[in-house]
Amino acid sequence: MSLLSDADCQVLRQRLATLPRPVRLVFFTQTFGCDTCDDAKRILDELAGLSDKVSVETLNLVLDTEKAAQFGVDRAPTTAVVAVADDGTELDFGVRFVGLTAGYEFSSLVAAIELVSGGDSHLSDESRALLAVVDRPVRIQVFVTPT
Asked: pLDDT (tens digit, 9 = 90+) per residue, 122-143?
């Protein structure tokens, strides 16, 4: 049984069809101690099934430690949203989703796929100028909750 309704699938197919570049969802899971990993994987697989421009790579957080370090992932489930350039190289803008991307988070995931694929943050020139003076790595975390 699908998690997404037929109407949602139709809308998502239309949105994903306009992606300028393919996007790979690098999904980190683990076998033990992750109650939401299976559901998170199922959602990503359904989403990827709606477009040939979206794919899922599943990695085990415990076994694939080198890849986890490369993506800065230290817990499961985590999904890295990565664009794929024409030459096959990854364009990683650091977009990560920790936890189950269901409910409100699902719409954020779809929007992130669109933004990463386009490679443009849509920030104003003023915001870009302010960010240009940042001289060290900054970790920004956004927490989403329905309450």
From this structure: 899 999 999 999 999 888 888 7
